[in-house]
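The record is passed on directly below:
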Amino acid sequence: MPPSPRPLRERGAGRSPDGAAPPPLRVRTGMDLTEVSRVEELLTSQPGLRERVFTARELAYCYRRKRAGEHLAGRWAAKEAVLKSLGTGMGPRMEWTDIEVVNDRAGCPRVRLSGEVEVVARSLGMHSIDLSLSHSAGLAVAHAVMVCQPTAPHDAPAHTTYTGEGDERHEA
């Protein structure tokens, strides 16, 4: 039996005027698991590390929480997960603070990129990054999912906040 024809409204959906299918989106992922005690020890034993890794906004958010160490470890893991999704690790000219984890109005973590990390993300055609964080039993885990367009946008502003939905900037 021949396949049934697609309804007219679906024919050509998502295609260019010449009928060609658009290039597929690419998805890149990164994940990191971090021991809370290890992050706390590093931040205690190495003066200045706190400010090299976290932005002032991240520190303020974490220290307003009952278990600040868990929140710091979660953001540490998030930064590692984002770097893994880029496929670079900590590359030349990259700074830890080029990756900032903020919360939207609903409290969901979002990623804000700047500096060399943003340059690399743009070169990959990054459209958005979704981030998931969790902590329990002395561990913090982060998972970053990056959606990349086939080509990098050329008209994006010099400094962009990438979020899963919209462009809300808010610290919960």
In short: The mean pLDDT is 83.
